[in-house]
Structures are given as structure tokens and as C-alpha cells.
Amino acid sequence: MHMKLYKYIGPDVIELAFSEAGYVGFKCSYPKDYNDPYELFLTIDPHEVEPEILAYYQEILGAIPQLPTTCFSNLPNVIPMWAHYACNSKGFVIEVDEEALLNIIPDISIADVDYKDEANVVDLDLVRHAYETGKSRHTYLLQRAAFSNAYFTKNICWSYESERRLIIKDSDVKKIEDLMVLSVPTDCVTAIISGHRSEEELKKRCREICKSISSEYYEMLIGKSSIIPFFINTSKKSFLFNGHILVEADNYCEDCGEPINSEDVFKCNWCTIDETQKIEAASKNPMRLLAKYGLLKDYVKACAKIRKES
Known about the structure:
alpha+beta, 3-stranded antiparallel β-sheet
């Protein structure tokens, strides 16, 4: 099973991302420009280290090199990600096949981010060993370990992102005005997912792109019975994310598409409500009666007064 990567993107980037025929562009940045002020943060306890070791640490690891980096998620259904990076679910997500990506750029560094609830501390034994031996290979091993820790470790407060980070060389990116862009063939794109608040124009454009590059198209939807979003394709089939890929739900409502547990029904309970039941429910709603006689404002004021006095 090929691993899938998910890039959350705002709606205004659709044309830029697919501006070059046959390619998709992913924005890259240096870690110093990311929104986390602790990117590449490394430390060592200065109170437990001799001054000469501390000076050596500062000399060898004082500045982790800044390399073009782009970030994906392992998950397409993280609501905070849709909110933060896809413009409050108005944007879209690009699903990428990692193996296809590695075949195109084999010398990239890619790995899951490790989330910790404490500072990222360099192994003091490695520092001392490199200092005491003075050998280049030990210094190289120290630098490689520190580089990996710095690039692939973040504070646990970011863990909801389930980030998988890709690091490349400066020579791998194109400079487009003030942007660094990694362009890869659209063969790597296996699907595009529009958000549940995406405008129809964006959905249409996503479908057009998917058709032109022979990839799948989905819309992310929010149901009424679960806090887990689901996805529908152009054939109106419903899908859920199983932790690895999107798979068709075993059973789903024929009207709204929301997955349901029962195998012997064709509609969810919400979609079985008929007009007679709606009218009866409305007749039993005392707020409608208050509104009919212009008393709703007095009711709201009375409630506010009760809350204030309680």
C-alpha cells in the first residue's frame, strides 16, 4: 500500500499550484519563516557542561542550515488543518503518492515529525565524544543527528497536524517572484479534495483539473451524526479515511451520503423526517407562538435578566 500525503491549501492558490502544464507546485519555505518560533530549536543544559564542551557545541551546532522545506499531513480529515491551512474549509487538499514522489526526487529527506512535550535536547554524550576524538566522522554523525532532531521534532501542541516533512536542496526549487516552489509531475497527484465550504467555482475547477490529470475528486462533507468528516466522489459514493487511504463506506444514506452503521436501511434517521413530522414539530415549538404574537423579544430579555441574577 502506497503512503498518501495530504497538502492543505487555500482556495486562491489553485491556479498557481497548477500553473505549469503537467506539474503541480508546492510552496517551500525556510524553517525560520514558519509560524512556529521554535523551528529547528535545539538546546543543551549549560549547567551540566564544561565551558570547553559548551563552546564546541556552539561551534558545531550553533546554526542548523536552513533548507527549503514543505510540509504535508498524514491525514485528510483534520478539522483544525482545514481551518488553519485551507481557509476555514474553503480551500482544498492535494493527495500525493509518496512513492511516486520519491521516484522523482530520490535524494530528499522525508519523515514524520516527532512531537515532544519538552525541549529538544542534544545528546551530550555525542557532543563529548566528537569533542574528545576530534575526528571528522564523529563530528559528522553529531551534526546529522542534530539536523534530524531539529527538522523532525516539534512541540506536542502541534501534534494535531500529524505532519510529514519534506526537505530538499536549494537547487530543487524554482524561484517564482518571492516564492520557492517545488514542481513535481502531476502523476504524483492521486486526488484533490475540496472543502465543505468551498465555492462552487473552486469545486468545478478542482474537478476539471482531476479530469485532466486522471486523478480522483472528492468533496469533504460534515454530517449530522458524527464529528468525523466523510468524503463523496463524482459518482456520489461516500468514503471514509481508514488511517491510510480513503475507502468506500460500507453503508451510507442515499440522500445526504453520510455513512450509517445499519446495513438494512437506505437513509439516515435525519433524512427520514417527512413534511408531516416537520409541521407537527413546528406546532409544538413555543418559540414560534411567542414570535407570532411579537413576544419573542420580551422572552429574550426575561432570559437575560434571569441569567444576570443567577
